[in-house]
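User: Just a sanity check before I run the rest of the batch. Below are the structure tokens for the first item. I only need the designed sequence back.
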């Protein structure tokens, strides 16, 4: 017990003031490829990597309209947002020397940048979406067989933000579609995807016309029902396969924006969470600190009260509480409300 009190005494000194966390995973961009074919000047190559990393970062975090608004940010401004960079591979023996660069953007500077631009950002890496694309062509529906979209949706991975899972063949769903052929919009997505409990489900009705695809997205995003219509024109006279791939690309972009819109983080309005941690191991606070450092949506934390049995910690975080709970779970930390008090358990 004396050892426990001694460790806690040290920790209370460390945590008495706010502890700013340094792990900025959301704002890291890894494996930016550069080549001397672009330029033999190393400074120009690194500048190219910075621009490419910034573009990849804001494309991942921002809604499409906000991405377009700041995509022309100049190099000098981008450099001010970077903490450091790391060249992770380089082969001097090759005539065309290729390298990969990791770029680490500073979280606080990015927050200030977004704040100044009045922009909200979103963290949706590896979000799971259950999807069913229905093809209508020449007044005929193609459900599973001969449905290019069902058979090829995941052929090309454009990013790691969304993981699509297509529904398996289901007789009941075939019957639902056949019964609602005259008004496919009446299909209730909760019934169609009743075997899946995920928050994100998408029924995509894709009707191919002469040089246009008329798309109706019937979705439930983060538990909220959202419908979306879009018209995709074959502007460049693409062949059938190329046009279908373009349709998939366009629909992916819309779904990505819908999910982002339901997970926006406003740096101007952080939230606070008071949690109680039972002190049953010497390493509790140390382990708690180590794991919290890996969660980028947690801005900082400090100790409010400490005794031999428990510690009360105030956590400053961004985003929704459900997102924080899931992030904590990823670090093997359970957060539950018990008798009006948030209690935290380290697994």
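Assistant: Here's the designed sequence for the first item:
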């Amino acid at each position: 017990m004396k050892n426990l009190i001694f460790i806690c005494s040290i920790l209370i000194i460390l945590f008495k003031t706010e502890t700013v966390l340094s792990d900025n995973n959301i704002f890291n961009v890894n494996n930016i490829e550069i080549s001397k074919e672009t330029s033999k000047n190393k400074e120009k190559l690194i500048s190219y990597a910075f621009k490419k990393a910034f573009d990849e970062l804001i494309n991942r975090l921002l809604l499409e309209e906000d991405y377009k608004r700041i995509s022309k940010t100049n190099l000098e401004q981008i450099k001010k947002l970077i903490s450091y960079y790391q060249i992770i591979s380089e082969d001097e023996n090759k005539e065309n020397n290729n390298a990969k660069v990791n770029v680490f953007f500073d979280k606080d500077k990015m927050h200030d940048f977004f704040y100044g631009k009045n922009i909200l950002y979103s963290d949706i890496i590896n979000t799971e979406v259950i999807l069913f694309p229905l093809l209508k062509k020449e007044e005929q529906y193609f459900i599973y067989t001969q449905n290019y979209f069902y058979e090829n949706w995941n052929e090309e991975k454009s990013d790691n933000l969304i993981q699509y899972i297509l529904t398996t063949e289901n007789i009941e769903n075939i019957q639902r579609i056949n019964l609602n052929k005259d008004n496919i919009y009446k299909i209730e997505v909760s019934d169609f995807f009743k075997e899946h409990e995920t928050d994100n489900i998408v029924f995509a009705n894709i009707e191919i016309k002469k040089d246009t695809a008329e798309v109706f997205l019937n979705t439930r995003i983060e538990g909220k029902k959202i419908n979306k219509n879009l018209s995709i024109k074959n502007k460049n006279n693409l062949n059938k396969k190329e046009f279908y791939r373009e349709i998939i690309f366009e629909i992916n972009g819309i779904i990505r924006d819908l999910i982002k819109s339901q997970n926006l983080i406003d740096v101007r309005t952080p939230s606070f969470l008071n949690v109680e941690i039972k002190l049953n191991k010497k390493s509790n606070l140390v382990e708690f600190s180590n794991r919290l450092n890996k969660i980028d949506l947690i801005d900082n934390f400090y100790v409010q009260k400490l005794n031999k049995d428990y510690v009360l910690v105030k956590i400053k975080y961004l985003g929704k509480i459900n997102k924080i709970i899931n992030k904590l779970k990823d670090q093997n930390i359970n957060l539950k409300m018990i008798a009006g008090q948030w209690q935290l358990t380290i697994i």
